[in-house]
């Protein structure tokens, strides 16, 4: 327990560390890694620039000593990082890590769920934007069909994972999938979370009119179901959750655009090459890898991390306007860690 909890300029503590384990992905979702930018000749990070598992664990231990207790492994597509279960085992063994989750597109989950479970992972968030095969294939930019992902979700749930599903909703693209997705996952008692389309990176074609807001989605759901708002599981929870009357199933909304949640944001992000970011919409990170590889001691690293957090005043979503969206240079989400 820290006697002087670390706080940023807006008195927000540090609680979560979102670790990107790779900048690569087997999908090309247009809202995240549009094909036109992430083409055949795109220069992804070479392996030598990625933090090693030992480097990630060393930093994780330091973050934990500053107040972090929740870890999320993400990317890019985290299941593309080789030997990921080894990292899960190592992070699970760090005293003070109370919760760890993984966010994945699920394509490689079928083959990896068992070793990940054996390594200690219990929570999976699987992203899926549509059940309709053609539409899903277009949205992921690579023609993948949803069938294998749906099977992997069922298997993971049966194996004991707590599984949630993330769906990014874009106007004119997949609103027609809101009710079919809700019915499908309600039946399986798997929480489906609708994510408002965000203006991450600089090239994802975002505009306000393409955002389908929580209120609009809720209205669609309420035309069929009776829903009741649920209490937050913990302060700073990203999703607002609702329960279906008469069922243990839940839905959630991640409302970065219509109801931003920066005032309770306690999330730090570590990119796969070791840069520390204090906001999903950041333009610049702090290079921890150069310190790690330059022989910095733990005290030096701790002092640097503390300083970055103490100086933090990010609240991009609170301040979002057409103008900030256009004028701010932002790092891509697949790199920074979604
Ligand atoms: N704007 C914004 N979006 C976030 C933030 N944290 C997570 N998200 C978005 O929320 C969506 C779901 O993220 P997940 O990776 O599933 O993580 P989570 O919802 O925090 O996970 P749980 O611990 O299961 O609640 C993704 O689109 C993230 O990019 C944040 O701090 N700001
Ligand atoms: C960047 S991905 C990384 C993990 C993994 N590849 C996946 O898709 O689950 C993390 C999450 O960010 C979401 N995401 C990506 N771009 C987004 C955007 N522009 N707006 C809202 N959510 C987005 C994805 O749907 C996914 O749930
Ligand atoms: S959202 Fe995830 S699956 Fe889609 S391109 Fe981004 S990193 Fe890949
Ligand atoms: S926009 Fe930035 S500060 Fe606001 S909740 Fe997201 S990551 Fe946190």
Brief overview:
Its EC number is 4.1.99.22. With 338 residues, the protein is of the alpha/beta class. It has twelve helices and twelve strands.
Gross CATH architecture: Alpha-Beta Barrel
Globular, elongated, flat, extended or rod-shaped: what is the shape?
Answer: globular
Low-pLDDT ranges: none
- Ligand kinds: guanosine-5'-triphosphate, S-adenosylmethionine, iron/sulfur cluster
Number of helices: 12
User: What is the CATH topology classification name?
Assistant: TIM Barrel
CATH superfamily: Aldolase class I
Radius of gyration: 19 Å
Query: What's the multimeric state?
Result: single chain
In helices, the fraction of residues equals 25-40%
List the domain count as a whole number.
1
Largest sheet, in brief, is:
12 strands, mixed
Structural class: alpha/beta
Compressed to H and E, one letter per element, the order equals EHEHEHEHHEHEHEEEEEEHHHHH
CATH secondary-structure class? Alpha Beta
Strand content: 15-25%
Alpha-carbon distance between the two ends: 28 Å
Structure description:
There is one protein chain. The protein has a single domain, classed as Aldolase class I (TIM Barrel), CATH 3.20.20. The relative contact order is 0.16. It has helices spanning 53-65, 84-92, 109-118, 133-139, 147-159, 178-187, 214-222, 289-293, 298-311, 316-319, 322-327, 333-336; strands spanning 16-20, 70-74, 99-104, 123-127, 162-169, 191-196, 227-229, 240-244, 250-254, 267-270, 275-277, 286-287. A twelve-stranded mixed sheet has the order 7-8-9-6-5-4-3-2-1-10-11-12. It has 338 residues and is of the alpha/beta class. It is built from twelve helices and twelve strands. It is 31% helix and 17% strand. S-adenosylmethionine is lined by residues 25, 31-32, 74-75, 77, 103-105, 127, 166, 168, 195, 197-198, 200, 204, 333-334, 338.
